[in-house]
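Supplementary Text 2. Reproducibility record for the structural model of the 434-residue chain.

All settings were left at their defaults, and a single model was retained for analysis rather than an ensemble. We include the record here because the model underlies the residue-level annotations in Supplementary Table 4.
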Amino acid sequence: MLDYIGISNKLIWQRQAIFLAATLLAAFYFQPTQAFACYAGVVFTEVLDLILSRRIGVWRTRGTFRKSRALFWIMVNTALSAGAISLFVIIIAIQQSSGGHFTPLFFLFAAALFAAMNNHQLVPALALRLSIYGVTFLFIAALDVWRTNPPITSAAWLEFFTVVFVLYFIIDCSVVFLRLYRKGLRQFEALKNEHNRTLAAYELKSQFLSTVSHELRTPLTSIKGSLDLINSNSLGEVPPNLAPVLGIAGKNSNRLAALIDDLLDLQKIETGDLAFNFENLDLRDVVQETVEASEGYADGLGMALEVDLPEGAAPVYGDASRLRQVIENLLSNALKFSFEGGTVRVRVEVGSEQVSVSVEDKGIGIPEGVEDKVFGRFSQVDASDQRLVGGTGLGMSITKGIVERHGGTIGYSSVLNGGTVFRVTLERNDKNSG
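Retained model, structure tokens:
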């Protein structure tokens, strides 16, 4: 019922254009006063339809919607509308002399076909409208037979039987459109149910990730803290035969802690719960702090870091800690995938509308066509057991989520064994930058 009303409202101007064109044609070749009077009747029924649709909207808003009451008024309006159109074509047919009623019959055929195509959502209303049109069809076809009482072999009877065939065609079209509509409804309902199941599974997965990550973090914090104390000799000298094993355990506890942090961030990004504290920033300060914090990691890998900052400010609107997380991830990847003794360069560039930060290395590079893996979850470009570096495969996915939350973009260009450049572009924000 609601679909029927919605389609009727959407097609109101299309119907009016058809009615007006038919009225002008009839007014030119037949009696103009009668033609415009009938058109006024059709417009009146259209106004009633609009009033009814608004009333039904009010009934639904107030919680007083009743199908029986709405259906009754829809049927009344349908009868008035179909009656006005039928009266219009009957008047044209009566004005014609015997020997064919192509114009009124075509007008009526167009109205019936339009109803069959667009009013199949409500079967009672469609059946009522087509019944009124069907009676009008038969009346016009029988008009010449009644006037002249011709033999069965005459053209008048041929026209009558042709009209009967046209009625069958319209009914068949109505049934076809009705079946297609109901098939579409079934498919829509199936998609809706599948969508609901997917959302439920997605929510369950998010809750599972969140619960497991939080439950793992507490005991892991104790384990990691204990291992750190032992490895730092705070509890006494570690026997030489135990030091390598405890060192491996310490490194793996750090990896697990990083994985849990990444899982929590990923889950929060998916649910929109990742906290952001947006403020006016100078991106140069964020980059400088991040590079300084990463120098120890770079020294441990035998790498060097260089930073190239513009003289003027690089104003952006963002979360400083989250942007540091982005740059840390990019630096970590660049350092891990570079050759020992190489240099990773960080550059900030300021344009008229955008500010960008790029991280360039001269490492192993990225093959073509693997962008989905680069920014995918739990995936790395080198997914083999022999890959040179470890990682959760979540860092770049989280990085992309944070950048997009800032309204920015992230991309890369790379050459195999020739290095990679990752570039983050943010909107320049000059408000309160001074």
